[in-house]
Amino acid sequence: MEKFVITGGNRLVGEVSISGAKNAAVAIIPATILAGGPCILENVPDIRDVSVIIKILYEMGAKIRYIDKTTVMIDTTRITSHVVPYEMARHLRASYYLLGALTGRFNRAKVSLPGGCNFGVRPIDQHIKGFEALGANVSIENGMVSVEAEHLMGAPIFLDMVSVGATMNIMLAAVKTKGLTVIENAAKEPHIVDLANFLNSMGADVRGAGTDVIKIRGVEEMHGATYSIIPDQIEAGTYMVAAAATNGDVLVKNIIPKHLEPITTKLRKMGVDVIEYDESVRVSRTEELIKTNVKTMPHPGFPTDMQPQITALLTLARGTSIVTEGVWDNRFRYVDELRRMGANIQVDGKVAVVEGKGYLTGAPVKATDLRAGAALIIAALAAEGTTEIEDIYHVERGYEEMEKKLRELGADIKKIEFPGEVLPKAL
């Protein structure tokens, strides 16, 4: 097994380039199943979740060729099975996008229930509601979700709650149906717009992505395309918070500033200087952090995937801050690990009260999920002394070369091996 060893106290200074968006890539890659020819995807992040979903397609018969580290050719025309290998898909939350893509192509699909980070129940009832509205029968047995239909028809679908996963899955299933599908109360995240743009580049007719009403007029055929995935807003936000935590001065490059507005606004309220350019932001801090309150909400609100990182930053601001989680039920599991580093945080359900002391101290901790791991890294960079972070495979699911990027900014971070269970590379 591997862990990060971080000695805090170094300012992060310099430039960091942001990779392609994880949350877009894990939906766009399954979407290639709908293409009638090869697709070339650019700005693909080199992360574990992407390698797993690409391997799943390969095991199903797709032709895969890496043109360079971040560009991959995927040809799914040879895929004939609608069943996804159980052992691989169950470790990946985004495996459920294969349900929509396979259903859109074959009118049926069989995929294991989603895995990924464990910070709350991940119901797929809104996904099922959408598939059934399109005319499919859905059943769950032995941990597998089966979707079957004689044929799919466009339909009006109102989501009972804003769900990114359900919105994207219904889009995937609906693009080749007959008729018009209208998704109301749709999620509006940037990666939903990215998926819609990719589907349209393959010949689909998807309109309204980025608003709460998405209209999909089914087409008979779709073709291959070349497409570049958007930059990762959560990776960018993580480095922005890390710069603020270390009194740093960092230029975060290859980003879309508009996607970062909720994060930028909150950092400015905390006394952090953020200067926006066309495709970059410069983040610096010279004054003490100011306490503030944060509530996560669906886009364009403050993203839930940035909640652990901003909470780590708030421990460094003197005074009381309140963090309210408006999306997931159990996303404060990492708080116990921050407490090991001296944080004073009390959690009651979806609310955390942070009594900031202005400093943290190094300690042995474990990443409980992907974004929790990022929060612990931020805390360690700012802490006095040395922190050892175990279970870093969570971090590698969603951050490309984080150790290398931080080291280039001046962080004292290294990855070391220690005895323990070896995680299979594909997982």
TrEMBL record:
Q: Which of this chain's residues are annotated to bind UDP-N-acetyl-alpha-D-glucosamine?
A: 93, 122-126, 305, 327
Domain annotation Enolpyruvate transferase: ranges = 7-406
Q: Name one GO biological process term.
A: cell division
One molecular function GO term is: UDP-N-acetylglucosamine 1-carboxyvinyltransferase activity
What is the E.C. number? 2.5.1.7
Q: What is its main location?
A: cytoplasm
**HAMAP family given in the database record:** MurA
Tell me the function of this protein: Cell wall formation. Adds enolpyruvyl to UDP-N-acetylglucosamine.
Annotated protein name in UniProt: UDP-N-acetylglucosamine 1-carboxyvinyltransferase
Q: Which organism does this sequence originate in? A: Acetanaerobacterium elongatum
What are the top taxonomic ranks of the organism?
Bacteria, Bacillati, Bacillota, Clostridia, Eubacteriales
Instruction: Write the gene name.
Output: murA
